[in-house]
Amino acid sequence: MRHCSDGRAVIHFRAAGVVLLLAHLLLVGWLTLRPLDVPWVTAANLRPFDGIRADLALGPGEAVRRIGEGLVLLAPLGVLLPMAGGRVLVSPWASLARTVAAGALLSSAIELGQTGVPGQVVDVDSILLNTAGVALAHLLVVPVSRARLRRANRAGAGDPARLTGESRAVRSEAPHEAPGEVSQGKTPTISRVGIAP
Predict the structure, then answer these.
(1) For residue 20, which phi and psi values (nearest 5 degrees)?
(2) For the chain, which residues make up each domain, given as ranges?
(3) Is 184 helix (H, G, I), strand (E, B) or coil?
(4) Which of 104, 122, 136, 170 is an S-S bond match for 44, by CB 3.0 to 4.6 Å?
């Protein structure tokens, strides 16, 4: 019974991640791809770090605001993408690489989409800042959260094999079974049937 409730909790966790991810993407789309009615726009920035240098030249307060906006825009993806994936046991580096790559691709798609939107300006530094924000959010939240989930699963279930996805049939072949657990026997096999010529 505990196994079923853990399975439902994972499904609810993943479902919440998907819903929050979709809500965040809708907000980002509305913020970045809606036409703006402005009297003039700056030229597109296609040289890395030129926009960041221009922001720094505006003074510390304005630089922090502009660079912070770039870092924060897609930062929730660093947490929501792994949450929607719902995996607890995964390589931290593979998870980081997948999440950062997805963030960079999404940021690039937004910048490409902005080429046809009045009032929006393409800036390659936005891709860099958005991707850095995704990476920072992932590094600050995901490893700690996964470690807590693993500890909670081990403590609550008392069965680390469930986390690794090991099937009950394979565990039942172990020489020493937990008290109260009933052996289900060997897994049936199908005999081979020859193919007619």
Answers:
(1) -65, -40
(2) 2-172
(3) coil
(4) 122
Reading the block at residue 70, the tokens are 């770039």
Supply 124's token pair: 């390659």
Query: Residue 25: which of 71, 69, 81 has the closest Cα?
Result: 81
Contact residues for 104 (Cβ-Cβ < 8 A; gap 6+):
127, 130, 131, 134
Q: Say what percent of the chain tops pLDDT 70.
A: 76
130 and 107 Cβ atoms separated by less than 8 Å: yes
- Is the pTM here over 0.85, yes or no? no
SS3 52: helix
What would the pLDDT profile of 174-183 be if each residue is shown by its tens digit?
A: 455 555 556 6
Q: How far apart are CA 185 and CA 172, in angstroms?
A: 7
Report whether 99 contacts 78 (CB < 8 A): yes
Nearest to 45 by CA among 133, 107, 135, 115: 115
Q: How far apart are CA 174 and CA 184, in angstroms?
A: 12
β-bridge partners, 123: 45
Residue 109, phi then psi, degrees to nearest 5: -65, -40
